[in-house]
Amino acid sequence: MRSWVRSTGSRRSWSARTASSCCWPGTRRRRPRGGGSYIVGSIVKDGNDEVWYCTLGGSPGLWRKLTGPSTAGALHLVSTPKRVYDSRPGQPPAAVGPKTPLQAGQKRTVDLKADGSGVPAGATAALVSLVATGTTTGVGGFLSVFRNDIAWPGTSNLNWTAAGQTVAVTTVTALDAEARCGLWAGSVTDVVVDVLGYYR
Fold first, then answer.
1. Hey, which of 30, 56, 81, 195 would disulfide with 62, CB 3.0 to 4.6 Å?
2. Burial state string for 92-121 with b = 16 or more CB within 10 A and e = fewer than 16
3. What is the distance between the alpha carbons of residues 79 and 97, in angstroms, rounded to a whole number?
């Protein structure tokens, strides 16, 4: 047996065959076999382990998919952007190191949960602002961010063209199971990472 939960918190049984007979949400409305009237706020888990929310009460009502095995996570914006890493000595967060420039061709792990950022373990991706500052080569370089548990994938998120530049970009990166990303630079630079939000 499956169950559906009304917004009042009460539970009623809902047979597994109901799920296969429904034409859920969005473009169509069709009452599940067995009838019943639904109120706004009702939440239903169907036979495919997909969760639906009733946006318009009635019989059958109108439904919107919330989540399921094939559904991407939603973006959660943190209440205030949070600096989780700065490679420059003396710059906050002071307790998060190493406080040395990122060397060319060397991976550096950054924990996006650092300094009370609000990003939880289990977050699958994050919206971040990356800054490369104090670039050191006249021929330019690049900075890449990626999931921490893989090798540098050969990509670039940020590029510079001269020494002494400060450049920034906002991007999305995948995270490992502990909400960490990896950084990789094509030439020596200091790096700043701010968290704006996360996916889960």
1. 56
2. eeeebeeeebbeeeebbebbbbbbebbbee
3. 24
Determine the 3-state secondary structure of 169 from DSSP. strand
Closest by CA position to 158, among listed 139, 137, 173, 141 = 141
**Residue 108 tokens, joined:** 């550096």
- The tokens for 37 are 């009237």
Q: Which of 100, 89, 117 is nearest to 179 (CA)?
A: 117
Per DSSP bridges, beta strands 2-5 and 11-14 are antiparallel
166-182 tens-digit pLDDT: 999 999 999 999 999 99
Query: ∠ at Cα 162 (171, 91), nearest 5°?
Result: 60
* Whole-prediction pTM: 0.67
What is the CATH number that goes with domain 75-199?
2.60.120
Kindly list the domain boundaries of the chain, sorted by start residue: 2-67, 75-199
Q: Look at residue 18 and give its three-state secondary structure.
A: helix
